[in-house]
Design a protein that fits this description.
With about 240 residues, the chain is of the alpha/beta class. It contains nine helices and nine strands. Strand 2, helix 2 and strand 3 form a beta-alpha-beta unit. Helix 5 runs parallel beside helix 9 and helix 7 packs parallel to helix 9. The longest helix has 21 residues. It is globular and about 45 Å long.
């Protein structure tokens, strides 16, 4: 069974972190480990994470960043810390509130094989699924996803879903350099992946998997004003990676 490390960025998650769910997953899935990155929290998040570490010292790594640097930097740090922690076959990330459950994460990872080296969830509302998302967030998300898909020129439905996993080899390449954007770093992942494997091979090496369940937990930490800047941010990212590669 492949070993899997999930990076979880945490910023002031004292009252949102579903500790019992993480404990259940650690108790039931021996191949799964977690790297929690405390991103300069000002509440009791670090204390809670350290308590989880005390219960599962071999399967939990806590990285404490003293200053808040944002989700992109936290995930970048976590993935690279995981490389030096253990030799994992798969590395990925989930949001701290487990909007995508660990069970769903494990399910999308099951699609990985010698050819598929990058998998990600997709929040597609359909009959038989349990995708619970606030209307305004859904609409903003669809606008962003459409812009992103057009910018990438790839048939991606949901670039922003916070459940993604990579083979160790591709993760080392994607996370070799820091991201230039904080909240739009998911788009950078696709640009990096496309440049590494070649655009013509993306659909052969990656797979987008509709989630069976997803829950909209709490309020987004992304300010609405940022959504107005997204088209310009996407253009900046595209220009950067076109120039870089």
């Amino acid at each position: 069974m492949k070993t899997n490390c999930v990076v979880v960025p945490c910023y002031n998650e004292e009252f949102r972190l579903p500790v019992k769910e993480f404990e259940k997953s650690l108790a039931e899935e021996n191949n799964l480990s977690f790297c929690f990155v405390n991103d300069g929290s000002s509440d009791q998040t670090l204390k809670i994470l350290n308590e989880l570490y005390q219960k599962f010292p071999d399967r939990v790594l806590v990285v404490d960043k003293k200053q808040n640097a944002g989700k992109a930097a936290a995930i970048f740090t976590g993935i690279n810390e995981a490389f030096t922690w253990k030799n994992f076959d798969i590395l990925g990330y989930l949001d701290a509130d487990l909007a995508t459950s660990v069970e769903e994460y494990s399910r999308i990872c099951s699609y990985m094989n010698e050819n598929i080296i990058f998998v990600f969830g997709s929040r597609v509302r359909r009959i038989g699924s349990q995708i619970k998302r606030k209307l305004h967030r859904h609409l903003i998300g669809r606008i962003f996803a459409t812009l992103s898909s057009t910018m990438l020129d790839l048939p991606v439905y949901d670039t922003q879903c916070g459940a993604k996993a990579f083979s160790q080899e591709i993760a080392k390449k994607i996370f070799a350099d820091p991201f230039i954007s904080n909240w739009s770093f998911d788009i950078e992942i696709f640009f990096k992946f496309m440049n590494i494997v070649g655009k013509e091979n993306v659909e052969k090496r990656a797979k987008e998997i509709p989630l069976e369940a997803w829950r909209d937990v709490g309020d987004s930490k992304v300010k609405f004003s940022y959504s107005l800047k997204l088209p310009f941010e996407l253009l900046r990212i595209k220009k950067y990676y076109k120039k870089k590669y």
